[in-house]
UniProtKB/TrEMBL annotation:
It comes from Dichanthelium oligosanthes. Keywords: Cell membrane, Glycoprotein, Lipoprotein, Membrane, Oxidoreductase, PQQ, Signal. Residues 213-565 form the Glucose/Sorbosone dehydrogenase domain. It is found in: Cell membrane. It is a lipid-anchor. Its main location: membrane. Residues 1-26 form the signal peptide. Its cofactor is pyrroloquinoline quinone. This is HIPL1 protein. GO terms for cellular component: plasma membrane. The keyword Cell membrane applies. Belongs to the PQQ oxidoreductase GdhB family.
Amino acid sequence: MRPSTVTGAVLVATVLLLVAVRDGHCAQLCMDSTAFPRTINGSLSFCGYNGTSCCNATDDAAVQKQFAAMNISGTPCGDIVKNVLCARCNPYAGDLFTVTTSPRTVPLLCNTTGVSSRLSTKPAATMDYCTQVWDTCKDVSIPGSPFQAPKGGAAAPKLTDVWQSVSDFCGALGGSGKSPCLDGEGAAFNATRPALPLNGMCLERIGNGSYLNMAAHPDGSNRVFLSNQAGKVFLATVPAQGSGKKLQLDVANPFLDITDEVHYDNEFGLMGLAFHPDFATNGRFFVSYDCDKTQSASCAGRCACNSDVGCDPAKLIADNGAQPCQYQSVIAEYTANATSGTPATATSANPTEVRRIMTLGLPFTTHHGGQILFGPADGYMYFAMGDGGSVGDPWNFAQNKKSLLGKIVRIDVNTMPSGNTTAGWGNYGVPKDNPSAADPSFAPEVFALGFKNPWRCSFDSGKPSYMYCADVGQAVYEEVDLVMKGGNYGWRVFEGTQPYTPLSSPGGNTSAASIDAISPIMGYAHSSVNSNVGSASITGGYVYRSTVDPCLNGRYLYADLYAKSMWAGTESPEDSGVYDVAALTFSCSKSSPIPCDVAAGSALPSLGYIFSFGEDNARDVYLLTSKGVYRVVDPAECSYACPIKSSAPGASSPAPGASPSSAVAARAPALATLLAGVLLSLPMSLMSV
Ligand SMILES: *[C@@H]1O[C@H](CO)[C@@H](O)[C@H](O)[C@H]1NC(C)=O
Ligand SMILES: *[C@@H]1O[C@H](CO)[C@@H](O)[C@H](O)[C@H]1NC(C)=O
Ligand SMILES: *[C@@H]1O[C@H](CO)[C@@H](O)[C@H](O)[C@H]1NC(C)=O
Ligand SMILES: *[C@@H]1O[C@H](CO)[C@@H](O)[C@H](O)[C@H]1NC(C)=O
Ligand SMILES: *[C@@H]1O[C@H](CO)[C@@H](O)[C@H](O)[C@H]1NC(C)=O
Ligand SMILES: *[C@@H]1O[C@H](CO)[C@@H](O)[C@H](O)[C@H]1NC(C)=O
Ligand SMILES: *[C@@H]1O[C@H](CO)[C@@H](O)[C@H](O)[C@H]1NC(C)=O
Ligand SMILES: *[C@@H]1O[C@H](CO)[C@@H](O)[C@H](O)[C@H]1NC(C)=O
Ligand SMILES: *[C@@H]1O[C@H](CO)[C@@H](O)[C@H](O)[C@H]1NC(C)=O
Ligand SMILES: *[C@@H]1O[C@H](CO)[C@@H](O)[C@H](O)[C@H]1NC(C)=O
């Protein structure tokens, strides 16, 4: 098929779409982040939480027992200490105790007044909560006090035994602004985010090639790796913002070429690329691709349709005429071709596979995402895997905790087991705190479930505990999920927030009542986008953290594959997990090094298909489309007004120690033409209606 041109689809800028969010199922995090807050039946008898909480009745009883041992019940300080202890039941406990950085024994106490509490109906207190705690408790002996100095001390310390003054105390335990804090009522959020206008996104076209993945060079330099669907990885140098230069990339000399291993067709190809965080010293990198076992001897793995997950391969063939597991999804490790322990300077990879990390046989030919990325906080590898295809996940894989299909998988590629893992998918370690540790009904590799075809996940570089995954819908709704450990994102019980009815269900059903499905934080109905093709398919992006466009800063950017609609989601209040979504118009920079194509009858440039987004070491954001590589630039280049001036330092990322000598100007038309026929069919199968 040919891409249709835009016909009069003029986006209205900054239309505020307040996406329906089921309250209490958002960016909430518990202290033991093996679980997100659960819906509780009734309210906790001691701590009183109802709705969602990080505690169940057992935890509540334990808090009650701890409190009783302090023997301060019924006193003003007792009321405060109870509140502090019960904060672990707050659905925002993880953030209140800052578990993602260095966990605390006492929640962050609000030391300013005037912050807004989502859980409070009372007007803001006149005195800040931290000072109240000090004033009320400073002279009270508290046996087993949670307010302990790091080195311990008295058995029943007073606050004054540990801290000299209210400013000492609040310097250590108080805070506000970045994180939610405990205001005595609930989790208080800083709602006073500067309201910068969102007038549009200005893009420059710096390359002509078509890629599916971008990975910033782990040495922090101004270089990125780009991979195409056919199976080549390129090392490219990013020009400075405002330089008017193009991406420097040598099409004739790829960093790695595994086109012989890769099965390249429609939804198949080289799907993911991730560099070990220590790549600059260890040279390790990973590629996720699809292979065809009838074509390649190394394409041999276990079939995802097997008796462990109640799937009968024979029935699969009978029902669909399909050959199950002819195609496999592979994660393979490669190494930089470096001579003297300096992988950062390598301009090519050793083409021999170092190690097979995973091989997963695919039941059908669609929905197998394939992105890989390293968690910035934990160093584990995350693998985004779709439900394995066909319409409506007939075998109910996405809800099957034992299947890796329809999951975000999390594995450890630093700690390898001596043999195969028990499930036999490959060679990797399992992080000790994966959900299976708390709930053995999970396969060890599973991190989160209920996805149809996660098409592009990212960690917020400004807030690494936030992992966003866009999940391609079936026929009605495209969604963005904030992914938490053990979270169930609903497919195929739900599509978006609506119940979904499968066409066929040989693998059985999961009832809505039996799961605690987490609603999307953002998304859009197919009916709301004018794609000219009668459908839609989401491409997830990044939280924009560059200062080049201050008006986009802090906003999660995402797009529809058909490139007629983009959106920016803003978490508001900060840390609440609640997002305001606005349509985002876009335009081409007047200084674009390669002119953008003009779409007939539209004010928007014609970008082709938006396959993916990318982020470099300067936190600049890119769109990887069928027509090239586009970078977000100073909004003034498109005459978009932003009250804060763009800061686009000439060299925001340092040049590498040794700049690649073979770099030449991007020259990709031959490749683009060659790939066009196949690439253009990708979108059809991505949405796979
Ligand atoms: C909630 O608890 C009440 C009484 O304890 C019980 O009747 C009801 O069935 C429970 N609901 C659920 C959904 O468990
Ligand atoms: C839950 O809490 C809200 C607000 O605090 C209150 O209005 C509601 O009655 C409570 N529900 C139950 C079942 O306790
Ligand atoms: C309550 O939650 C804890 C973890 O917070 C868990 O270990 C325990 O099994 C749960 N108890 C019940 C009765 O669900
Ligand atoms: C608890 O405190 C009261 C007075 O505040 C005291 O009389 C009592 O002995 C204390 N009990 C324990 C177990 O420490
Ligand atoms: C509030 O807490 C923060 C973080 O600990 C500290 O930097 C700041 O000085 C405190 N402010 C006041 C008014 O105590
Ligand atoms: C809220 O955030 C803004 C901007 O980040 C900051 O200037 C302000 O001090 C914060 N307010 C509070 C009450 O912490
Ligand atoms: C590895 O690098 C060396 C020196 O740069 C080069 O001669 C050799 O051809 C490279 N090998 C591969 C497989 O790229
Ligand atoms: C891993 O399992 C596969 C298939 O079950 C088998 O062929 C292979 O020899 C095993 N490898 C090791 C190292 O045990
Ligand atoms: C699954 O649910 C669908 C729709 O409600 C129903 O038609 C089908 O019979 C169910 N399948 C099984 C195996 O229960
Ligand atoms: C990119 O494509 C445009 C339009 O097809 C062409 O004019 C231009 O020369 C190409 N640029 C490069 C660097 O290949």
